[in-house]
Amino acid sequence: MGALIGLVVLVLDIIAIVDAVKSSMDTGKKALWIILVLVLPVIGMILYFVIGKKK
């Protein structure tokens, strides 16, 4: 069960990173979000999708 949750978090982190790279944000903000997602996988990914992603 733990491995499945880890796999889901990994996939969502990869999606968040790819989305950040493809976004229209400036390079500094992209780098900051990517570092945040890599350092804090669950919290960083949630924060990116809640406040970092522009609609």
Summarize the topology.
Layout: H1 2-22, H2 27-39, H3 41-52
Task: Describe the model.
This protein has helices at 2-22, 27-39, 41-52. By secondary structure, the chain is mainly alpha-helical. The protein has one domain. α1 (2-22) packs antiparallel against α2 and α1 packs across α3 (41-52).
Tag the structure with descriptive keywords:
55 residues; mainly alpha; elongated
Q: Which regions have little confidence, pLDDT < 50, spanning 5+ residues?
A: none
Shape: elongated
Order of helix and strand elements from N to C terminus: HHH
The structural class is mainly alpha
Average residue-wise pLDDT = 93
Number of strands: 0
Q: How many DSSP H or I helices?
A: 3
Number of domains: 1
Fraction of residues in helix: over 70%
Report the sheet with the most strands, covering strand number, pairing sense and barrel closure. Answer: none
The whole-angstrom Rg is 11 Å
Question: In angstroms, what separates the terminal alpha carbons?
Answer: 33 Å
Strand content: under 5%
